[in-house]
Amino acid sequence: MLNKKILFALSFLSTSITANTAENIQINTLKNSTLTVCTTGDYPPLTSYNIDTRQYEGFAPVVVKNFAKHMNLKLEFQKTTWQQLSSDLMAKKCDMAIGGITYTEGRNDLFYLTEPIIKSQKAVLFTKENAHLFKRFSDIDKRENVIIENKGGTNEIYVNKIIKNADIKIIESNIAVFDCFEKYQEKPYAMITDSVEVEYRSNSSDSVFSNEGLNMELNHNPERYKVYMANQTTKGKAIILAMNDFIRTHRKEVDHWFQESLSGTYHEDEAVCPF
């Protein structure tokens, strides 16, 4: 009986070593190659395109730059939009997509996804001028209010699910949403987005945004997390295995980069409120 247990343990250990070896072989195939990354560049602090330096900044670009250096990869960025993110990746315009990408079952069906990068839930963003009006979700979902969201992504899907009374306006650019808030600070506008974006937008003392929506209870709002995506190909699998390994072994640095990104200054592209 004891011999059987020993043999079983050895068999299990052998299988584990073989699996790890196979993963290492896949990861090693990436070295000294080019990694092309799609990102929207309109979602600080997670991804932002600096119009002055023509460089990508923010948390996700910092992570992927350090990953590329670690893997000895040549890194190239490909600009995309929230509407085109999945189709650009599937069309192989890039090897991996990064930024403010939330895990969904639909994305998991289509792509290889990394392990959780950071946690995030949906929260409500509104101006300080309107903080006295919006104390709970029922104050938000009223006919006289307007919910403004960018087209594509999980924000649009989420508001269409939970908003029953307020008017919903969907506009093309994520950055243009914030121009609407700047332009109409006293109008009863709100945006439902990721808590990390609410935290960032309300962080500075001269911000027009309130952080009070971070603690507002919302319907159907489980804890979510951000991921990076790659195609379901041999190379895509190798990229995700390598990125997962990098995140695990550099978790302290990753958490530090995220905290740094929250207090960063980003030179965003110009986008005008369409109304």
From TrEMBL:
Protein's UniProt name: Solute-binding protein family 3/N-terminal domain-containing protein
Residue span, Solute-binding protein family 3/N-terminal domain: 34-261
Keywords: Signal
Family listed: Belongs to the bacterial solute-binding protein 3 family.
Superkingdom assignment: Bacteria
Pfam families in UniProt: SBP_bac_3
N-terminal signal peptide: 1-21
The UniProt record lists the keyword Heme: no
